[in-house]
Amino acid sequence: MSLKLRLARAGAKKRPYYHIVVADARAPRDGRFIERVGTYDPMLADKDKRVTIVTERAQHWLSVGAQPTDRVLRFFDAAGILNRAPRSNPTKGEPGAKAKERAETRAQAEADRKAAEEEAKNAPAAEEAPAEEAASE
């Protein structure tokens, strides 16, 4: 049986409140759990009081092999129970393939428009040049 330290939602609609629980990984999110080891109230204004953890029990469950979810791991890292390795995703801000394709098309259209403008500027000057040559002869 694989154990997870995860959040179980409680509270009313649009007023979330979470319990930090130890549960079987196959159990439903808000369903059966083994033990409650803390709470998380995101609605509290005081950031220090949002998360409460029973440290001894959390350490016990970690020692017997329970795996915390990413959010719970963040809470444990802030509480000094477990260290969370920093993550790096250098491609996070890059646009997707379709957006890159649209940007490339847009850039090509802009380049074509500028080339047409330059050509339009140069065309009248080219037409005037032979007329000036004919007048000077």
UniProtKB/TrEMBL annotation:
Residues 83-137 are annotated as: Disordered. GO terms for cellular component: cytoplasm; small ribosomal subunit. InterPro entries: Ribosomal_bS16, Ribosomal_bS16_CS, Ribosomal_bS16_dom_sf. NCBIfam families: S16 (TIGR00002). Pfam families: Ribosomal_S16 (PF00886). The lineage of its organism: Bacteria, Pseudomonadati, Pseudomonadota, Alphaproteobacteria, Hyphomicrobiales. Keywords: Ribonucleoprotein, Ribosomal protein. PROSITE patterns: RIBOSOMAL_S16 (PS00732). Belongs to the bacterial ribosomal protein bS16 family. The gene is rpsP. Residues 95-121 have a biased composition (Basic and acidic residues). HAMAP family: Ribosomal_bS16 (MF_00385). The keyword Ribosomal protein applies. One of its GO terms (biological process) is translation. It comes from the Bacteria. This is Small ribosomal subunit protein bS16. GO terms for molecular function: structural constituent of ribosome.
